[in-house]
């Protein structure tokens, strides 16, 4: 799994994020783990009281 940050000036400020790439040999458990990690990051990086 490859994760690449995307930030200005490549994209507008409100569109910053991560681009991800996957291979055919990744298992469902690999994808589930990646989703779990991103969910944790979203919680950690979202200001308190802001909507996700």
UniProtKB/TrEMBL annotation:
The keyword Transferase applies. The keyword Transferase applies. It is an enzyme of class 2 (transferase). GO terms for molecular function: 8-amino-7-oxononanoate synthase activity. Keywords: Acyltransferase, Transferase. Its EC number is 2.3.1.47. This is 8-amino-7-oxononanoate synthase.
């Amino acid at each position: 799994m490859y994760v690449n940050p995307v930030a200005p000036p490549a994209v507008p400020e409100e569109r910053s994020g991560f681009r991800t790439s996957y291979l055919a040999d990744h298992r469902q458990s690999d994808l589930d783990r990646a989703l779990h990690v991103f969910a944790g990051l979203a919680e950690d990086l979202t200001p308190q009281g802001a909507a996700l």
